[in-house]
Amino acid sequence: MKHTIEQVSPSRVKVAVAVEADAWKEAQEKAFKKVAAKVKVPGFRPGKAPRALVEKNINHEAVWNEAIDALLNPTFAAVLQETQLRPFFRPEVGVTKISDTELELVFQVITVPTATLGEYKGLEAPRPADSVTEEEVAAAVARRFESNAELVLVEREAKMGDTVTIDFDGFLPDEQGNLKPFDGGKAENYNLLLGSGSFIPGFEDSIVGMKAGQTKSFKVNFPENYVKELAGKHAQFQVKVHEVKEKVVPTADDAAVKELGIANVNTMDELKEFEKKAMLERKVRDSEERFYQAIVDKIVANATFALDEAIIANEAAQMEENLKKQVEQNGITFDQYCDITATKLEDLRANFMKQAEANLKVYVATNTVGEVEKLYVTDADVDAEVKAMAEQYKMEEEQVRGFINRDLDGFKNNLFQKKIHDFILSVSKPEGVAAKKAPAKKAAVTEGEEKPAAKKPAAKKPAAKKTAAKKEAE
To answer: Cα separation of 328 and 325, whole Å?
Structure first.
């Protein structure tokens, strides 16, 4: 197969292919039969007319289009085999030459992002020592008892910090000044923590001082940065209080500690030690992760990338779609979300593009470290992880394998990412501290190793739907 390659940009390639004459002729013949079966010739059933009559009535443009469609996938597969290109999307396809005897196709290929690494070993970043103060331990213990507090019914007036059970109805004035209910302004037996800021300003303050059984009407204003339908409007609410509950925090003593139900923790001293240990572990993890991210930022800064704008835009579009789904799950539209948060769509999309580019660079740079260092996942790695998971979750190893085999590639990729994470930490150092010695670099991929596939979205079918006349003109 004759082809020429033009490097349009670091991330885009144009491949021109002259299709073999015999292959083009065979594709046209098959396409002719397929299209001819639908051609109506007076006096003949479809597919039964003589070829000469069919040729006079058939749409030759349709035959060429059908033949081209049939050749696209096998031709592009041959291109990939001969060129070793790694496409990220399916290519855009054009026709630069076409006749009964000739067909020339051109594929516009966006390649998988790549990174050329700069320095990535021996890098330094700040990493302060991890410690826990007595004040932090005391605060953690207090939060532990706070989370185990009980809500107790009280007969007094409601105050901030209480939880009230209420019915409420909201109304807005129409053009004539008559009060009308509005969507989302009504609820029954709603539990509201006063002071939580769950409702618009003024609503919770208006309930303070009410008792169980009381009903009250009051006016509040919706904020200017609320949904368009309600922003800045004056609303009237009618609220009935059913219950007022007070949070009662247990007394901090050994008896209360036992009520917490923490294994092997029965006294205040043991609880303090438990919280101190847990907090220190979290701080160590957080500190290590911040250190790791700082090192990765330096690796990215030292690298150069071939990263196409279309790939960044695709990633940003997925981020926007994910946000829309999250917003809609909370019962509001995306437009309402933008109104409430005073966010302009163009600013949001610009931020997504920046975030998408940053995320992709991190992914590509760290994966390139993994490939350069040959940190590929072996069968032994999988076996070890399966055994560890089986022990952790008290399961049989075969059960664990059954779960991971549902997405074995994803499982292996997670192990690959962990290897990269651990390697980068092993060859980096906190500022002012000597670096650890890097693990010995493997000379080659050994038996059982598997190179991780490039991450990319589902490919799109190449399109070549221009009319034959336009193709020939091009």
So the answer is: 5
